[in-house]
Amino acid sequence: MFDVILTLFGIIFTILTLMVLAAMLIWGERRLLGIWQDRLGPNRVGPFGILQTAADMIKIFFKEDWIPPFAEKAVFFFAPCVVVITMLMAFAVVPFSPSLGIIDLNIGILFFLAMSALAGYSTILAGWSSNNKYALLGGMRSAAQMISYDVFMGLSLMGVVMLSGSFNLREIVEAQRDVWYIIPQFVGFCIFMVAGIAESHRLPFDLPEAEHEIIAGFHTEYSGMKFGLFFVGEYLGVILISALTVVLFLGGWLGPVLPPFIWFCLKTLLVILFIILLRAALPRPRFDQLMAFGWKYMLPLALINLVLTGAIGLALG
Amino acid sequence: MLSQLRTLWEVLKHTTTKIDTVEYPDEQPYLAPRYRGRIVLTRDPDGEERCVACNLCAAVCPVDCIALQKTEDENGRWRAEFFRINFSRCIFCGLCEEACPTYAIQLTPDFEICEYQRPNLIYEKENLLISGTGKYPNYNFYRNAGKDVGVKEKGAGENEEQPVNIKGLLP
Asked: Measured between alpha carbons, how far is A295 from A152 in angstroms, rounded to an integer?
C-alpha cells in the first residue's frame, strides 16, 4: 500500500515538474533564439521575462475554444491529448538518478519507442479530423516522417542494447561506468539525435508544421488550449529526447563530485540547448529531401553501424 | 555536412555579440536635430505668428493633411483663421517645411504622438503653435517683406531701400 502511494506521489510530482519545465522551456527557447539572432527575446513579464509562459497560458485559456463545424469532433478533441499523454507516459521509464524514477521496466527502450511512435498518431489524427487540406497535408507528412524515422531510431538503439546486453534503461546507465556509449556508438548517437528531432517534429524536421508552406500544418484548425497542448507536447518531446540521449549515450546520472540527479539535469539541459541551437541555425529541408535522407543515408548507416557493432562484439568475445 | 556544422558554430558565436534591440521606452534613441517628427507652427522673434496663410504647405502636401483658411487683420497682415493638420494622414515628408516662405511650419524631433482615438490626432492651430521661433531664431518675415502691416514702415526694412517716387524725374 505504501509503495503504491509513493509511486503515485512520484507520478504526480514528475508530471507537475515536467509541465513546469516544458513551460519554462518555451520561454527559454524564445530567449535563446533571441540572443542568437542578436535580439532580446521576451524579457518583460517577471524577472528576465520568466513568467512569459504564464502570461501566454492565461491568454490562451481565455481564447475561444473553437471546433470547426466541418471537423470530426471526437477525434479533433482527442488528438491533442494523445501527444501529451504519450510523452508523459514515456517519462515513466526514464531513470533520473539511481533512486529516482517511476518504474524500472526491463523493456524500457521498447516502451519508449512504442510511446514515441504513438505520439505520431496525435498529428496524424489532428490532420485528418480537421478536414482541412493543409491540415491533412501536415498529417500525411507526419505519417511518412514517423514511419521512415522510427525505423532507424529503433535500429540506432540496438547498438547500445548489444553493448549493454539489456533493454533496461537503468542497467544501460550502469553499463556506462567505464565509458559513455557516445564513444563506441558515435554513429548511433548521431542517428538517434536526428531521428529524435524528427520524431518530436522540431526544426529542421518540422515539416508537418512547416508554417511557410502549409500554414500551420496539422494544427491549422486548432485554437485555444488545444493548440497549447500541441505546443506543450512538442516541448515535452524535446525534453524526452534529450533525457533519453543522456541516458543512452551520455552516461545518464554518472559523473564525479555532484549528486547524480544534478548530473542528469545538467546533461539534459546541454542536449536541449543543442536542439534549440539546431533550430536557430538550420533551415528546413524539402520533403523529398527529408525522405531521401532518411531512407538512403540514415537507414543504411544505422544498419552498417549495427553490423559493425555486432562483428566487433563477436570478435572481442 | 561541414557547412551545417559551420553554421551551428557561426550561430553559437552570436551568444556573445552585442544585442541590437533598443528597449525604447526605457532607453531613448538618439534623434538627429533635423529628424522629421511632429509639426509645429512657430512665432517670429516678436511673438507674433509667422504663418501668413499662403496655402503653399497645403498645396504641396502629398497626402492633403493640412487645411487652413486665410484671414486679414486690421493692419492688412495675413493670418490663418484656422490651421488644421491631420496627423493620422501625415507622412512626415517635410515638404511643407520646405515650401513655407516664412519658416512658420517646422518639423520637430518628436514622434510620440500616439492617441487612442483618431479624432485626437487632428491638431488645431492652438495645438500646433509654439511660443518659440524654432530653427530660425532671428527671422521675421514682415521685417523683410515690402508690405507694411504695422511691423515696420515701408522702406525701413534691413535690406530695403525707400520706395521709388514714380512721379519724380530722378532715376
From this structure: 9
Chain A residues whose CB is inside 8 A of the B20 CB are: 38-39
Q: Which residues pair with B40 in a beta bridge?
A: B106
Residue pairs between chains A and B whose CB atoms are closer than 8 Å: 34
Query: Best interface-test mutation with A: which of B5, B14, B17, B27 has the largest number of A CBs within 10 A?
Result: B14
**Residue numbers of the domain that contains B57:** 29-141
- Mean pLDDT, chain B, rounded, equals 88
Residue B158 has pLDDT above 80, yes or no: no
* Nearest CA distance, B31 vs chain A (angstrom): 22
Q: In Å, how far are A105, A270, B129 from A97, measured between CA atoms?
A: 15, 17, 73
Q: Which residues in chain A have their CB less than 8 angstroms from residue B11's CB? A: 36, 277, 280-281
Judging contacts by C-beta atoms under 8 Å, the chain B residues touching residue A281 are 4, 7-8, 10-12
Quick one: pLDDT at residue B106? 92
DSSP A298: I
Tell me how far apart the alpha carbons of residues A73 and A67 are, in angstroms, rounded to a whole number. Answer: 7
CB contact (8 A) between residue B19 and residue A38: yes
The domain segmentation of chain A, as residue ranges, is 73-316
- The pLDDT tens digits of the residues spanning A146-182 come to 888 888 888 888 888 888 888 888 888 888 888 888 8
Residue B4 has pLDDT above 90, yes or no: no
pLDDT at site A117: 85
Of B94 and A216, the structure prediction assigns the larger pLDDT to B94
pTM: 0.78
Percent of chain A with pLDDT over 90: 2
The answer, for B13 touching chain A at a CB cutoff of 8 Å, is no
User: Would you place residue B171 in the very low, low, confident or very high pLDDT band (cuts 50, 70, 90)?
Assistant: low
Instruction: Indicate which of A29, A31, A40 best probes the interface with B, i.e. most B CBs within 10 Å of its own CB.
Output: A40
Sheet containing B66-72, strands listed edge to edge, beginning at the edge strand earlier in sequence: B66-72, B78-86, B122-123
Residue B152 domain flag: no
- What total number of domains does chain B contain? 1
Q: Which of B71-80, B116-125, B159-168 has the lowest mean pLDDT?
A: B159-168
Whether residue B150 lies inside any domain: the answer is no
